């Protein structure tokens, strides 16, 4: 079987190279360019099964580019990414037949599931079946859930026991606790492991698009529906559908979801015939479900249908024994990704970490460790490298050089943001690309912020 050919349209050369290398290692045949004009020239002579395009790339208007790509080959799947998506653009390109329009991921691995779904659609168009199974098997990477916590181990044992059933699973927990990891763990331990794992964020899609994304639509179902489009339920056939933030789903769609769970069939938007599917549903929420039920925002019958197997993931602050274990794991992970030597935490840095509240849970810890590894100038990670809110660097410490923890100073948030940006630029010797990555923003956003500060200073 020949490798799928992917075209990347990304202005930032570093991001383009990193993404290209990552996809090549996944087995794709990848080519990259930096703007829409060059991309259209390439498409004139070459056929790509998939295109990943940054919606903010120079000379690239998402709707026009999509029409051009589809005109060259209607089977090409186009995935748009954007750091700051414009809802109108997202809605229009989805109506025109784009595969998806997603918020630019901070971690390239977040693209993996979307690429798997893209490949799945290519196989479906070609009538593939056994090929599809082998492809998914080759892309699936064993899920690692790092823990020594007793409650977490009990949850993992329960998840493994029920994995091979067809029962719906409802995972509750705060943001960043690892709900999606648990869902993937269940999928990989089930008899569906070689079939699709399809993820949908119910809070990220506009209400006007969610129904079409879940259930698909027929040609002519609405303005711009130029061809039949299979929904996520169809793409997840024989596999697992992961519905993230299910309590954000509009109330009128909840009854349609309930029917699919009960009957394993649904109607496409604009369709007249029911579509049968075999799908295992795993749903999550970070909200208190009882409140949503009492407010009438979430159907009680749907809740009980989803809640066949309930899993409640504890926040990181309630399993502090995992902080050291997870820190070591993330240090090793990002030392490989960023080609850095592993730098262990000093006792002082670890003590500071262990007393954090971690409102963002494991995801917050991961970002802190990644940032510290990039910022550390010595062979060890010190407290000042963690850049924690409310932490005063060692050079401004109190008696005995002990780091000082203090309440956030009563000053405008904008001023605090400015201080953090200039501090990060100082630590990276003025390297804007490096600083933007650490801060979790784009270089364009950083440049705009700096221009804003210049205007304020002149005023």
Could you please describe the fold and organization of this structure?
This protein has 459 residues and is α/β, with parallel strands linked by helices. It folds into four domains: 1-127, Response regulator (Rossmann fold), CATH 3.40.50.2300; 140-314, P-loop containing nucleotide triphosphate hydrolases (Rossmann fold); 319-396, Helicase, Ruva Protein, domain 3; 409-459, Homeodomain-like (Arc Repressor Mutant, subunit A). Helix content is 45%, strand content 13%. It contains 19 helices and 14 strands. It has helices at 13-25, 36-45, 62-72, 87-95, 111-125, 130-139, 150-162, 179-188, 207-215, 232-235, 251-263, 289-294, 300-306, 322-337, 347-354, 361-375, 413-427, 432-439, 443-458, and strands at residues 5-9, 29-33, 50-54, 77-82, 100-103, 169-172, 197-201, 240-244, 265-267, 274-276, 280-285, 309-312, 391-392, 404-405. A five-stranded parallel beta sheet has the order 2-1-3-4-5, with helices on both faces. Strand 9 (265-267) and strand 10 form a beta hairpin. Helix 11 (251-263) packs across helix 13 and helix 18 (432-439) packs across helix 19. The radius of gyration is 24 Å and the shape is globular. The termini are far apart. Mean pLDDT is 82; it is low at 128-139 and 391-410.
């Amino acid at each position: 079987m020949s490798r799928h050919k992917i075209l990347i349209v990304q202005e930032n050369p570093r991001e383009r190279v990193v993404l290209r290398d990552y996809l090549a290692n996944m087995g794709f045949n990848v080519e990259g360019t930096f703007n829409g004009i060059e991309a259209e020239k390439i498409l004139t002579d070459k056929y790509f099964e998939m295109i990943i395009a940054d919606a903010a790339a120079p000379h690239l208007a998402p709707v026009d580019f999509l029409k051009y790509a589809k005109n060259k080959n209607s089977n090409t799947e186009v995935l748009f990414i954007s750091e700051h998506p414009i809802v109108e653009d997202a809605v229009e390109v989805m109506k025109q037949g784009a595969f998806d329009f997603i918020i630019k991921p901070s971690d390239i691995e977040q693209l993996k599931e979307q690429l798997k779904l893209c490949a799945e659609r290519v196989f479906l168009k070609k009538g593939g079946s056994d090929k599809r199974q082998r492809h998914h098997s080759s892309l699936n990477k064993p899920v690692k859930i790092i823990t020594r916590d007793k409650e977490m181990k009990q949850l993992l044992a329960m998840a493994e026991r029920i994995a091979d059933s067809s029962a719906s699973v409802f995972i509750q927990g705060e943001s960043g606790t690892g709900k999606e990891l648990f869902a993937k763990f269940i999928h990989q331990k089930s008899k569906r492991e070689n079939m699709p794992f399809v993820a949908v964020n119910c809070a990220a899609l506009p209400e006007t698009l969610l129904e079409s994304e879940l259930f698909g639509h027929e040609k002519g179902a609405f303005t711009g529906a130029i061809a039949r489009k299979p929904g996520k339920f169809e793409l997840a056939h024989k596999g697992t559908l992961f519905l993230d933030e299910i309590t954000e789903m509009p109330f009128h769609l909840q009854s349609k979801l309930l029917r699919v769970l009960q009957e394993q069939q649904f109607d496409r938007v604009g369709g007249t015939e029911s579509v049968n599917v075999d799908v295992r549903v795993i749903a999550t929420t970070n909200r208190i479900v009882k409140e949503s039920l009492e407010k009438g925002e979430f159907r009680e019958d749907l809740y009980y249908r989803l809640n066949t197997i309930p899993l409640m993931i504890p926040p990181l602050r309630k399993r502090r024994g995992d902080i050291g274990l997870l820190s070591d794991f993330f240090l090793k992970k990002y030392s490989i990704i960023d080609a850095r030597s592993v730098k262990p935490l000093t006792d002082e840095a670890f003590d500071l970490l262990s007393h954090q509240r971690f409102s963002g849970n494991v995801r917050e810890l991961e970002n802190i460790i990644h940032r510290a590894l990039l910022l550390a100038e010595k062979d060890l990670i010190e407290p000042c490298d963690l850049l924690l809110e409310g932490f005063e660097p060692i050079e401004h410490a109190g008696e005995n050089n002990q780091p000082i923890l203090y309440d956030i100073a009563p000053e405008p948030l904008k001023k605090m943001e400015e201080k953090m940006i200039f501090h990060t630029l100082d630590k990276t010797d003025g390297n804007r690309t490096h600083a933007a990555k650490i801060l979790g923003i784009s270089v364009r956003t950083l440049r705009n912020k700096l221009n804003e500060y210049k205007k304020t200073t002149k005023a």
